[in-house]
Specification:
Histone H3 K4-specific methyltransferase SET7/9 N-terminal domain, 9-stranded antiparallel beta sheet, about 10% helix
Amino acid sequence: MKKMMILGALLISAVTFAQKEPQLEVVGNQVKATYYYDNGQIQQQGFFTDGKPDGKWVAYDMNGNKKSVGEYTKGEKTGRWIFWNDNKTSQVEYTNNQIALVSNN
């Protein structure tokens, strides 16, 4: 029942993430979520635990190139996130779900 509630909540919230139907898959005690652009490319992919983002998340642009990679812990951004924008790479360190340090390459 708990997993069904999680899946229901994810389906309702998915409208804010992507235009196409998300793909949801129960993996152990987590739900793996894949969101898509209208053109069929993956928009972002990651895991939920108890209805919150948890673990590695990867976001892509409409051409399939990585836009960001980072970790969530119980719904909060943690550690180093990497963002790609044109020819620049930015690294952002999160502490307590807040930006602690930003470096650009």
